[in-house]
Amino acid sequence: MKFLSYLISGIRLGSIYAIIALGYTMVYGIAKMLNFAHGDVIMIGAYVAFFALYRAGLPLIVSLLADVAVCTVLGITIEKLAYKPLRSATSLAVLITAIGVSYFLQNAALLLWGSTSKIFPTILDYGFIELFNGELKISYLILITILTCVVIMVCLTLFVNKTKLGKAMRACSEDKDAARLMGINVNSVISLTFAIGSGLAAVASLLLCATYPTVTPTLGSMPGIKAFTAAVLGGIGSIPGAFLGGLLLGIIEVIAKVYISSELTDAIVFSVLILVLLFKPAGLLGKKTNEKV
Amino acid sequence: MKKIEETLKKLFSNQYRQRTVSYLIVVLAYVIIETAIRTGNISNTIKSLLIPTCSYIVAALALNLLVGYLGDLCLGQAGFMAVGAFFGVVAAAFFAKYISSNVLVLILAIVVGGVLSGACGALIGIPVLKLQGDYLAIVTLAFCQIIKTLLLNLYVGIDSRGLHFSFITDNTNMDPDGVLVIKGAIGANVTKKLSSFTAGVLLILFALFVIYNLINSRHGRAIQACRDNRIAASSVGIPVNKYKLLAFVVSAILTGMAGTLYGLGFSSLKASKFDFNLSILILVYVVLGGLGNMTGTIVSTTLLLVIPEALRAFNDYRMIIYSIVLIAVMLISNNATIMFYLKRCKEYCRKLFPKRRTE
Q: What is the enclosing helix (H) or strand (E) of B31?
């Protein structure tokens, strides 16, 4: 029964990773860039949520919407100002710019809100449901987290596979020039991708703060790296892959922490990534591309 | 007289100009700074920056070999540096028991740091170099995190019976005269700061020597062929994986040496310092200095270490200014219009001042 409760908390953590990883993977799929600033968008989202919920006293739903709005606008702004001028530059130049943006956001937060951490009071404290005669307690918060992740995942898959915009996205990720020839506005599709990714980051920030209730300017970096790892584990560019990778990573992290060693958790998580990539070089669900000469 | 002229001509010929300039800049900078130290014209902040700058330069040069000549992005530099730093410190403490000469101990420590780091490079390189592009980057990043986590839990002690290692908890079981050199999360204790500015400069010169000789050799040309077109290279019979591994290990060895230099320059050392951000920092130096341009790497590393210090006056704003500068440089240097005008400017200057041909 203990194992089951650990498993559930692993799935909860994994769900958060999965939501963040979706942002990474979509941007990578379309723009072929590693968006290192994604973790810091989450951090900004966490601050916005904190101020909306506790300084302004807004209800949860309104705060969530405000958070999503702010992060989406932030994501689009970053894309327009920093990444768009580099569309034709080397991937390394874009990477360094993303790092610059990440530094900028972290230091802006440090300047605006100070380095002392802000503590989230418990949000979403709705109690538990008890299973197996009270042996297994699952808080509603965990259920909400997991459910949110599944809903987002399903909606995104439907969006990408069934709608016209989704089709445009897939076309862009396959071949930008050909997509442009077909009359697709590649720039706006890329902006849309960034908007979706950043919106998801806002949702993730709220769920993350419900789990770890301290907000600091460097809050986003570690979940960012982990989620990025999750995206690669699942096969970067693939939406179900990000979901699978996130869940696996969360479960492995919690199980390793409990059963092997809490000190070595990170080492175990990243070793799993290396092992998986050894046998499946494109990630679990990634497509293997054959190079043409 | 004629002989000197001929040597000079050779040194500044197209083939050798780049390395001559690199060596000259390092030596000149050394002479200027050393004179400033001797005459007392240098502030303590700059003085404390000298050794870290040297070791960052070596690490950045090593990374430039990977990114610029092998064409693979590696985000694990901090991991290799950490290996070099921690085991270099242990080696220094160990050898200091038997050897009284500080210089010899430092050299031995740097060799040990480099060799162990190179071994790590080979260990991670053999399986990983089959991956490409961003996958390689993420795996080296993962490797860096693993190293950091392991070092955070490592305990090493020295007593009269030799070295004692233990993991996660401190059960080194030493004799009463034993000293803990590495204390897990608390970090390493450096008993004697052996690194000096001169040693740092010599290490830079050594790194330049190794890298220039490698890239101008048969092996170096093979490495560059792998970068330019892997498939074409392997179809003319170049063993791509072997050369990738070679470059990877050489880079790891140099980075480990840089790490040892860094570690022995401080009185205490924490594994948490060698995180992902450090790898990124070194990558930034390399990219801003120019891929494959060693002189550029040296200059950009020095500038980027000095700029944040120079901005101390703006204390709160300095990192924000730094990040804006970083973004602006990337945007400007990749902007086609601006580059076009710069090129026109250059051509115009060339017309104004016709260059004397040396050959």
A: helix B17-39
CA B77/CA B281 separation, integer angstroms: 10
Q: pLDDT band for position B358 (50/70/90)? A: very low
Cβ of B215 under 8 Å from any chain A Cβ?
no
| Section B39-63 average pLDDT | 87
Higher pLDDT, A54 or A10: A10
Which H helix or E strand runs over B189? strand B188-189
Whether A103 has its CB under 8 Å from any CB of chain B: the answer is: yes
Whether B330 and chain A come into contact, CB under 8 Å, resolves to: yes
Q: State pLDDT tens for residues B188-240.
A: 877 778 888 899 999 999 999 999 999 999 999 999 998 888 889 989 999 98
pLDDT tens, residue by residue, A203-222: 999 888 888 888 888 888 88
ipTM score here? 0.82
Assigned CATH topology for domain A2-116+131-279: ABC transporter involved in vitamin B12 uptake, BtuC (1.10.3470)
To the nearest whole angstrom, how far is the Cα of A285 from the nearest Cα of chain B? 14
User: Closest partner residue to B134 among A101, A236, A274, by Cβ?
Assistant: A236
pLDDT category at A123 given cuts 50, 70, 90 is low
Q: What is the pLDDT of residue A285?
A: 82
Average pLDDT, chain B: 85
Q: Chain A neighbours among B 69-88 (CB < 8 Å)?
A: 73
The alpha carbon of residue B160 is apart from the nearest alpha carbon of chain A, in Å, by 30
DSSP letter for each residue of A214-259: EE-TTTTHHHHHHHHHHHHHH-TT-HHHHHHHHHHHHHHHHHIIII
> At CB < 8 A and 24+ separation, what contacts does A116-121 make?
A117/A214, A117/A215, A117/A216, A118/A47, A118/A50, A118/A214, A118/A215, A118/A216, A119/A213, A119/A214, A119/A215, A120/A50, A120/A53, A120/A54, A120/A209, A120/A210, A120/A213, A120/A214, A120/A215, A121/A54, A121/A213
Tens-place pLDDT, residues A12-40:
999 999 999 999 899 988 888 888 899 99
Q: Two tokens at A226?
A: 């982990």
Q: Are B275 and B99 within 8 A, CB to CB? A: no
How far apart CA A79 and CA B108 sit, in angstroms, is: 49
Q: What is the pLDDT of residue B354?
A: 64
Per the model's pLDDT, the better-predicted residue between B322 and A292 turns out to be B322
Kindly state the tokens that stand for B268: 């205490």
Q: What is chain B's percent helix, strand, coil content, to nearest 5?
A: 75, 5, 20
Domain ranges of chain A: 2-116+131-279
- The contacts of residue A139 (CB under 8 Å, 6+ apart) are A126, A127, A128
Nearest CA in chain B to A264: B149
pLDDT confidence of residue B206? 94
Burial of B287 (0-12, 13-18, 19+ CB in 10 A): buried
Round the average pLDDT of chain A to a whole number and report it: 87
Distinct helix (H) and strand (E) counts, chain A: 11, 4
Decide if pLDDT at B325 tops 80.
yes
Annotate B70-111 with DSSP letters as a single string. I------HHHHHHHHHHHHHHHHHHHTTT---HHHHHHHHHH
Name every residue whose Cβ is closer than 8 Å to that of residue A50 and which is 6 or more positions away in sequence: A118, A120, A209, A215
The CA distance from B122 to B226, in Å, is: 18
pLDDT bucket at B141, cuts 50 / 70 / 90: confident
